[in-house]
Design brief:
about 70 residues, 3 helices, single chain, mainly alpha
Length: about 70
């Protein structure tokens, strides 16, 4: 059975973006501060910059598993 991973809350996402927009902290430091992956911070900031949104993206297609049963 596959575990469903829940997206980070909008509250956390907003705090991360706000910390970045303050301009005093690097993306790596923000990741450490909020205990999230650096890649998540990078993607969230990029999404915010390009779309103005911070809501989780909706998956339209489930990624197939790499292992066969």
């Amino acid at each position: 059975m596959l575990n469903q991973v829940q997206p980070y809350s909008l509250d956390l996402r907003q705090k991360i973006v706000d910390a970045y927009l303050e301009g005093n902290t690097s993306q790596r430091q923000i990741a450490i501060q909020f205990r999230v992956a650096y890649s998540f911070v990078r993607k969230l900031i990029k999404q915010h910059r390009e779309t103005g949104e911070i809501v989780p993206k909706q998956r339209t297609v489930q990624t197939p598993t790499k292992l066969s049963v």
